[in-house]
Amino acid sequence: MTRVLYYLQFLLLAGLWWLYRLMPVRWAYPIGWGVGAGLFTLLRRSKRARTAVDNVLIAGITKSRAQAYRIARFSVGHFVGHVCEALRVSDRVTKDNWRDHVTLEMDPEAERLLFQPTGPIILATGHLGAWEAGITAITSARPFFAVARLMDNPYLQRFLNRHNFRGGATIIPKQHGFRGDAMRRWRTQNAALAILFDQHCSNGVYVPFFGHRIPVYTSPARLHLSTGAPILVGGFLRTGPLRYKMVAVGKPIVARP
């Protein structure tokens, strides 16, 4: 029964994808924004919607619940719009023209490290921006690895792999961990490894975040100390329709003995 359900999910996604491909790329973000904001409005009394509003208030961005609701609604709309545009990025942004769509905001040392590879590097980032376009830019200079959880539905996973939604990244299954052959290929190919540090962490190093102390993963630091690969901290921001900005914070992190 599970296999039948998985296949029905695949057929639904494939049908929606076929219809989506008929839509002009410039419509992707505004339609996605409208869908996301509309769903948030319809589900505004749901637990997830209330949590989103509460998080805006806890962060201290505003003290007004009405304003917090508007911010949360806009954020959800932006997120869904982002996803919809990201699914079509590969139609327009390629390894040959990515500089027409992406600007760089980073220290010259960080830019050299990223685009003139002399060894493997670690990219410490979060669930921020359209990394599908960012991966296209980075893979013009070096291979790109990312540790991610594979989908439970094998039909959907093969569909995603076939249509290259990850922009040419090599996905290391989170279930297997980053070790053995994956680490060897990362080092020998002078690849970039993206580690998302804004995921839920039950035990880690506590850091201040919007006035609160939260635990974060130590894996980027531990991998750096064990391999010597420098760390770049940053994100990839959308600035307009199919326009993006790749940001690196400060200089590359290299621990000194």
Topology:
Blueprint: H1 2-21, H2 28-42, H3 47-58, H4 65-86, H5 89-92, E1 102-105, H6 108-115, E2 121-125, H7 131-138, E3 144-148, H8 154-162, E4 170-173, H9 181-188, E5 192-196, E6 205-209, E7 212-216, H10 219-227, E8 231-240, E9 243-248
Parallel strand pairs: 1-9, 2-5, 2-8, 3-4, 3-5
Antiparallel strand pairs: 6-7, 8-9
Helix pairs in contact: 1-8, 2-4, 3-4
What does this structure look like?
This protein is of the alpha/beta class and 257 residues long. The chain has two domains: 2-87, no CATH class; 96-248, no CATH class. It contains ten helices and nine strands. The protein has helices at residues 2-21, 28-42, 47-58, 65-86, 89-92, 108-115, 131-138, 154-162, 181-188, 219-227, and strands spanning 102-105, 121-125, 144-148, 170-173, 192-196, 205-209, 212-216, 231-240, 243-248. The strands form two sheets. The protein has a seven-stranded mixed beta sheet with strand order 1-9-8-2-5-3-4, with helices on both faces. A two-stranded antiparallel ribbon has the order 6-7. Strand 8 (231-240) and strand 9 (243-248) form a beta hairpin. Helix 1 packs parallel to helix 8 (154-162), helix 2 runs antiparallel to helix 4 (65-86) and helix 3 (47-58) crosses helix 4. The longest helix is centred in the N-terminal third of the chain and has 22 residues, at 65-86. The model has no long low-confidence stretch (mean pLDDT 87). It is found in: Cell inner membrane. GO terms for molecular function: acyltransferase activity.
